[in-house]
Structure formats: structure tokens, C-alpha cells
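Dear support,

I submitted the protein below through the web form. The confirmation email said the job was done, but the results page showed an empty box. After a refresh the structure appeared. I'm attaching both so you can tell me whether what I see now is the final result or a partial one.
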Amino acid sequence: MEGISCLLILGQKPRTVRNGWFDEECTEMLEEQNKARLKMLQKKTRNNIEAIKNLVGKQGKYVGRRKKTTKKENWKKYKRSKKEIN
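What the results page shows now:
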């Protein structure tokens, strides 16, 4: 058997989540944006271009807010843990 892949020998390591801010709503918004992008690529009308622009802005604002609040929460947890140690 010449073509034994490394996946068969080593197995596959599950992915770990690095950022807690990327939730289910972010995924849904990204999928919606991708659908609108494909629609715009198929038919490049003014309405489709406006739709993709609005979705990109909406998703960007949501993700930005989500990242910012998560960073703040994590920083507060870190500060509390430092106070408890000292």
C-alpha cells in the first residue's frame, strides 16, 4: 500500500476555538453576506451591490462591537484574578 495518508496513521486533531467572540450569530451573518456576494457576482445590479455593502457594514459593526466587549470582559476577569492572587 503505497498511498497511506498521514491522516490514517496519525489521525486528525480537532480544531480548538481561539476566540470566544465569534459566535453563532457571526457565522449566520457571514453566510448571509456570502450569499449576497454570490448573488452580486452573478448579477451585478445596483440593488445587489447596495445589499452587499449594507451587509458588510452591518457585519463589521457587529463583529467589532462583539470583539470589543469580549476584550473588555476578559480584561476585567484578568484584573479580578490578579487582585485575588495579591
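Response: this is the final, complete result; the empty box was a page-load delay. Residues 23-78 form one domain.
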